[in-house]
Amino acid sequence: MSVDTAETATRPDPPPIPSRRASHLVMLVTLVGVLAALILLGFFVGSGSFSISEVWHALLGQGDATTLEVIRNNRVPRTLLAVLVGAALGAAGAIMQSLTRNPLADPGILGVNSGAYFAMVVGAVVFGITTTSGYLWFAMAGAFLAATIVYFVGSRGVSGASPEKLVLTGVAAGSIFSGVGFGLTMIDPKSFDTIRSWQVGTLDGRGWEEVTIVWLPICLGCLVSMLLIPYLNGLALGDDRARSLGIPVGRVRAAGFVIVTVLCGAATAAIGPITFVGLMVPQTVRLLFGPDNRWLLPMSVIVGPIVLVGSDLLARVITPSELPVGMVTAFIGAPVLIALVRRKGAET
User: Fold this and answer.
1) Number of structural domains, the chain?
2) I need a labelling partner for 53 at 20 to 30 A (CA). Which of 222, 243, 258, 323 fits?
3) Which residues of the chain have pLDDT under 50?
4) How many DSSP H helices and E strands does the chain contain?
5) pLDDT (0 to 100) of residue 345
6) Which Pfam families does the record associate with it (predicted)?
7) CA 145 to CA 272: how far, in whole Å?
8) Could you tell me if residue 66 is inside a domain?
9) Which structural domain, as residue segments, surrounds residue 173?
10) How many other CB atoms sit within 10 Å of the CB of residue 253?
11) pLDDT value at residue 12
12) Cβ(293)–Cβ(98) below 8 Å
């Protein structure tokens, strides 16, 4: 027996390579831990100079009135609202990309958020709506209108609902909705004062009222979306093959667009139009977990809050006066979109 053969025979077996499922579970636990840490950090970071002990006691319901007001009625609901809106936009983006088989699809890019904002402006200018509960229904109607128009126009022609056509149609529709909405606020100063905090997307000044109103539609929308997972995986194979597998393509798309409408409408009613989160989140999850919607959609519900809570923390500390969170997500999302387009161009 040669020396090499003897060494090979006595060499211990290499450690087993962990399965993909095990690695996914490890990443899942890690992401949940990151989200929990960011939520806790959101309670401790913000305007006002409070020590860690003061914040902790305020969370337990102890301390002076000022500390309790800032911590329990400002930072806590603001952070929880960021979690809810991030989950809504992450899930909506994943559903939209799966329904259209377009990795560049996003509720913001496809004009859904702009449609919700436009409807909110109409509610404020024409009907005098001033409450989040009133905005919620208008925002959902506007989101559904925008999604319907974009998909109907973008699917016309021989090539059907191609990614390029849907993106171009969405950008055009979003620009029209945003422009008309902004014009309406300019001719009505009272409505402008009412709606201006929603125009760029901000969590500043949001409290328990917004959380109380939107948590139910967002949570229900995220839970119901999980029922679409097997159908979304079937749609990834193409409409004809999905039909051959017994998937009701039309009804699945209709249900998906209704869910996206509810999620985007509630998110926009709460803090205003937020762009790029619905694009960034599914793309990040797809890189980590792959294209299987059994992982893509649930993980988007976790990564979405990570992105939005993290952006809100940056918005609080990046300048002496807090930036709107929508501005931070735009700064982050624009380079991501450019990178995705360049990557897609390099592959084709």
Assistant:
1) 1
2) 323
3) 1-3, 6-9, 16-17
4) 16, 0
5) 52
6) FecCD (PF01032)
7) 17
8) no
9) 80-347
10) 18
11) 53
12) yes
